[in-house]
From TrEMBL:
It is found in: Membrane. InterPro entries: Arc/bac/fun_rhodopsins. This is Bacteriorhodopsin. One of its GO terms (biological process) is phototransduction. It is a multi-pass membrane protein. One of its GO terms (molecular function) is photoreceptor activity. GO terms for cellular component: membrane. Its main location: membrane. PANTHER family: BACTERIORHODOPSIN _OPSIN, NOPA (EUROFUNG) (PTHR28286:SF2), PTHR28286. The keyword Methyltransferase does not apply. SUPFAM superfamilies: Family A G protein-coupled receptor-like (SSF81321). Belongs to the archaeal/bacterial/fungal opsin family. The chain crosses the membrane at residues 34-56, 68-95, 115-133, 140-162, 168-186, 207-230, 236-259.
Length: 287
């Protein structure tokens, strides 16, 4: 005769194996300590980073320096919002892997909310790096466009269930867009940072960023979305560690430098103005 406890355990096992509602997904997350801690740790670190930025940059007055600071702060603003979505189960789904996948026919947890994080946060990372390097709006805008394309095609790779081949094709497209960004950072911006006098800081930032960013496609390939060598918890912590390095550590290095308002990154009170100042307008033209 089936006991009440057996029925309850069976019901719980069903919830944990095939969660469908947000409440069930939320329960699934917090029954996996490794997975839950990878989300909660980033919420805490993003919040602490925002507070640190406010404290470190409280005296910054140059508008160009302020733009860099705000860009770095928005990285953590996006992260804390996105990781809250992951933790709550709002931006997590279970999708069935297609034929040919290592876990074909199984419903696999997909953290598609991470792609939202990257889509909205990496542009601010690139804006900050581009400004530190002294680059122009064209190159900064190009890098932002390609990073959005990289993240969106990465999301497509994660969500495609029609064909394992199409999943990997999306992954290849995303990787190509990623290599364009790497070229801009390592070649174009490195040369501009040298000319701007910010190469000491920029070289450190580019290494942390580029080396860290190469870890994301590697984890994708090894994780449950790729060949499924790593389980969900390990994959999630891998992504979280990379986020800590490429977001919060990079952010603090930038803000500690910018807070001193060195001449290499400042631009004066007219920077970004849509009209000339009265003093500039009053200056007579040369005869």
């Amino acid at each position: 005769m089936t006991t009440t406890s057996t029925v309850l355990l069976g019901a719980q096992d069903t919830v944990l194996q095939t969660p469908e509602t947000q409440a069930e997904i939320f329960e699934f997350i917090f029954n996996d300590t490794l997975l839950a801690s990878s989300f909660v740790a980033n919420i805490a670190l993003a919040g602490l980073t925002i507070l640190a930025i406010v404290f470190l940059a409280r005296g910054v007055s140059d508008p160009r320096a302020q733009l860099i600071v705000i860009s770095t702060m928005l990285i953590s603003v996006v992260s804390i919002s996105s990781y809250t979505g992951l933790t709550s189960g709002l931006t997590i789904s279970f999708i069935e892997m297609p034929a040919g996948h290592a876990r074909a026919g199984e419903e696999v947890l997909t953290m598609w909310g991470r792609y939202l994080t990257w889509t909205f946060s990496t542009p601010f990372i690139l804006i900050s790096l581009g400004l530190i390097a002294g680059s122009n709006l064209t190159k900064i805008g190009t890098s932002v466009a390609f990073t959005i394309a990289m993240c969106v095609t990465g999301l497509a790779a994660a969500l495609t269930t029609s064909s394992v081949l199409m999943r990997w094709w999306w992954f290849v497209l995303s990787s190509i867009f990623f290599l364009v960004i790497v070229y801009i950072i390592l070649v174009e911006w490195s040369a501009e940072a040298e000319a701007a006098g910010t190469s000491d800081l920029f070289n450190t930032l580019k290494l942390l960023t580029v080396v860290g960013w190469f870890g994301y496609p590697i984890l994708w390939g090894l994780g449950v979305e790729g060949i499924a060598v790593l389980d969900v918890g390990l994959t999630s912590w891998g992504y979280s560690i990379l986020d800590i390095i490429t977001k919060y550590i990079v952010t603090l290095l930038i803000v500690m430098y910018v807070a001193k308002e060195p001449s290499e990154i400042t631009a004066g009170s007219d920077y970004g103005a849509t009209r000339k100042s009265k003093s500039a307008a009053a200056t007579p033209a040369d005869d």
